[in-house]
Amino acid sequence: MLINDTKSVDKKCLQRLHDLHFTILNWNEEMKSRNDAIESEWKKPIKREKKGDEQKQDTEIEEKEKRTELLFRVIGMKETLKAKIKVELWGEKFKTKEQVISKDMKIGEFRHYVLTYENILKMIAIYLRIQSNTPIILMGETGCGKTSLIKCLAKVANVPLTAVDVHSGFGRQDLRNIVKACVDKWEDDEKKSEREREQWIFLDEINTSPDIGWLNELVCNHTLDGAKIPEEIKIIAACNPYRLRKWDIKDEDELFASDELSKYVYRVYPLCETMKEYVWFFGRLSEVDEQQYIVEMTNQVKNEIPFASHKEFETRKGEISKKIAIAQKFLRTHLKDKVIVSLRDVSKCLKIFVWLMKHYEKLNCENNNPWICRSLNIAIGLCYYFRLNIEKRLQLSQELSTNGLFVKLLEQEVHKLCKSFIIPRGIALNQGLKENLFVLFMCIITTTPIILVGKPGTSKTLSFQIVRDNLSHLKTEFEKN
Ligand SMILES: Nc1ncnc2c1ncn2[C@@H]1O[C@H](COP(=O)(O)OP(=O)(O)OP(=O)(O)O)[C@@H](O)[C@H]1O
Ligand SMILES: [Mg+2]
């Protein structure tokens, strides 16, 4: 039960709810403790002894157990399945002494997923709606966690999920095949209970298809070609909003000139009238929610970096999450909805950071600046800084460090890397080319998708050719820098 402020509720009433085994969430207190947790994480670098560290891990596991249990209770999960699901969700740390891990188990599939009260409440609301057979279309900004939430929820509920990425070429026959496979499975499971026969079909990005009209039938009427689909096969959909941009496109003609759809934030089609009735607004993350995700996502990174860096990571993790949060907020404010910054950027930034931390030995990085700080600077540079124009870059640098040190350190990294490339004769290694080389090379080695956008003649192809030649001939001396 969610109560704004438990102090305003009669004590006897609260006691009675406790006796009835209600879990009571005090929203105001929860908000306060979240703010305090973020503040304390950012304010003081915490130095912990090993023992304290282990203790903290135990409390983290306990907290995650508590939250998962809460979800299990709402879902009505069988006791016998809980242990298996927890290990499949969060990993071996959640294994009980007696538990045997079988080969077919996918261990820790969602270990990066942060379970906050915010997404627990969303999961509960969505789950109840699915169970009551009410059509549901999740609508929200890109990267706010719709797809991850449904996938994680299906795992928590132990329901087989068929996730379908709808796109403009997605045809009626594709949909028929998907539904048929699910109905066949449902028929095979004839002897099982209703609950065990349950399956979810998740139509992601539903409004990217111009033929949205015929998806309407499946989502809203639970029929396909007029034939009823079994009740145990639940249909869930997700989409981005059909929303106009707030900024004036005329100022930014380079990218969007003469493109009709450029006035919309997402290239999607409007929902049909019936669908609109079933939209569930996922919205966007509030600042404090996002900060909490950043803090928790950063904390989880520790398990992936080499053990030797754990101590240093503990001292600096507050600084890491704070800097990512600053960059995230900066881009959102200064680029408005020209670009969307979401949890996807946080996850990308941390992925690059982890990659660099893992390759410390190989990269042989002797330098006055600790490698952990250099890794963070490079990651922030790639995910946020290089997306800005010169003026905004300086502003971001000021916010990230005193005296704009960030930009100087990043320039050093760019310079060091470019020095190790063999540049064909007659080519001037100017700032633009250097940046292209740096961004391209880093994105290729960390397998981060990248699209270089620029006016004609801004060395896009040339930089790609240089990186390709250097990599394919193993000429680069990057490892020595
Ligand atoms: N609870 C969470 N914990 C950790 N990371 C998360 C969480 N939710 C989302 N993310 C991260 O954010 C990224 C984007 O999430 P997701 O793909 O679910 O967004 P989406 O709302 O489906 O976006 P889109 O509209 O573009 O499909 C994921 O790759 C994941 O790394
Ligand atoms: Mg998605």
From TrEMBL:
CDD domains: AAA. It holds the Pfam family AAA_5. GO terms for molecular function: ATP binding; ATP hydrolysis activity; ubiquitin-protein transferase activity. Gene3D superfamilies: P-loop containing nucleotide triphosphate hydrolases. This is AAA+ ATPase domain-containing protein. It comes from the Eukaryota. SUPFAM superfamilies: P-loop containing nucleoside triphosphate hydrolases (SSF52540). PANTHER family: RZ-TYPE DOMAIN-CONTAINING PROTEIN. Residues 132-271 form the AAA+ ATPase domain.
